[in-house]
Amino acid sequence: MGSQLGSAGLLLVNTLINIYLFLLMLRFLLQASRADYYNPISQSIVKITQPVVGPFQGFLRPVGSFDLATLAAGSLLKLVSIIAILQIAGFGMPSIGGAAIGTVAALANAILKIYFFALIAMIILSWVAPQASHPGALLIMQLVEPIMAPVRKVIPPLGMIDLSPIVVFIAISLVDGIVVGSLTRAAGISGALVGL
């Protein structure tokens, strides 16, 4: 009974860490896509993640539109959580290389999930409210536009039908299956720790 409660507790802690990592990577992607910083949703994400990102901003400056402080904060958070959860679960100290590879896999997984869900939301919005001006709808459009624009140049819309989301979904699935899956296997840790 105690070990089941301990496992459930570790699973809960890992899930909460993965949700926070999701928010950190969302902040990173919003800045990378130059989304509206003054959007109320953007402001909320910044406020929620600032306690973790703040200490890194003193010495890690953004490079172009890439916020290295947020990336470093997410990496350190996930690295420490992987090591701590494996230690508490009784698996011992993982190799630093394996934990680092697991961290990269977790960051990539979070970014791919954000794009996946944002694309689904964008498709639904294009059907039910194509001219929506809600802050959430605007943020979703600003988030996905940098990955959709290059595909639209290659595959222009066919009248009312836009095939570019299908191509992006396939690309996300391939990267998730091949790259993130390979990184997770190379790390030698559970996919649950990575967030799969």
List the helices and strands and how they pair.
Elements: H1 2-32, H2 40-57, H3 68-88, H4 96-128, H5 135-154, H6 164-187, H7 191-194
Helix pairs in contact: 1-2, 1-3, 1-4, 2-3, 3-4, 4-5, 4-6, 5-6
Number of helices, counting only DSSP H or I runs of 4 residues or more: 7
| Rg (C-alpha, Å) | 18 Å
Please report which band the strand proportion falls in: under 5%, 5-15%, 15-25%, 25-35%, 35-45% or over 45%. Answer: under 5%
Topology as H/E string?
A: HHHHHHH
Structural class: mainly alpha
Form type: globular
* Major sheet attributes: none
How would you describe the overall organization of this protein?
This protein is mainly alpha-helical. The protein is built from seven helices and no strands. Helix 1 runs antiparallel to helix 3 (68-88). It is globular, with a radius of gyration of 18 Å.
Brief summary:
With 196 residues, this protein is mainly alpha-helical. 77% of the residues lie in helices and 0% in strands. It is globular.
Keywords:
196 residues; mainly alpha; 7 helices; 77% helix
